[in-house]
Design a protein that fits this description.
Keywords: Cell inner membrane, Cell membrane, Membrane, Plasmid, Transmembrane, Transmembrane helix, Transport. This protein is an all-alpha fold and about 290 residues long. Helix 8 runs antiparallel to helix 11 and helix 9 runs antiparallel to helix 10. It is globular.
Length: about 290
Amino acid sequence: MERLNYNLAAKPASERLGYLAFVLTACVFAVFFVMPIVWSFANSFKPAAAALADPAALFSKAFSLENYRRLEHVGAGWYVYAGNSVLIAAGTVILTVLVSVPAGYGFSKFRFPGQSLLFVLIMATMMIPFQSILTPLFLILKVFRLQNSLLGLVLIYVTFQLPFAVFMMRNAFDAVPKALIEAARIDGASQATILRRIMLPIALPGVATVAMFAFLNSWNEFLAALIFLSDQNKFTLPIMLVNVSSGIYGIIDWGALQAGIAVTMVPCILLFLLLQRYYVRGLTAGAVK
């Protein structure tokens, strides 16, 4: 409030009304985005009877961890599915960053025959609907004996993350002045040294953005995991939520479902809170030169 009052006092009278309207509109949109999250967490601590009687109620007088305990008996247990999701998300992030960083650096700072055509082809893969190539992907995984494996799923996720990741890293490296590279070359630094010790620290917001997108997309992805995984012990959290929502005899266990949603949301929220500063800077990298 002190900052709001300071900003209002610092602006001319003609601009104060517009600034106040902007702040109020932003608060309204924030409430719309935050309320579903608050509702999910609040319902996850309801007793089973209260959750079944009135699933739409925001709060309950009673507090219980019963819903989280029931998740342990869903299939192999929520901790098994959470571990699978962590392994898949971590592998996707690491491989995406390892491939997109040198690729983005190459497209940004080097010139070679067919560069523009190759970059356009990479970007064009973003236009291919994932659902249209499920069969070819399954056949490829079968040839390499990677069907029904977490590694195969990681490779699929990395493949679909790379076009956007390469695009982001190229923009991030474009924002770095060439004078830094030329100065490093004069000092005798190799290309690997320039990339590792000069370019990468400056382009760190772009790396954080790529890593966050790769994590969120692989953590929340459902269709590929449902199709390419058949072993219940290798399922991920999104598939667990489907099993919870289907329930026995089609009866939805609302309390356990909200507990599963809360478990799925927590890593995403924490990651965004930790990296939001780099996320915004990474998205705008290369926009102004």
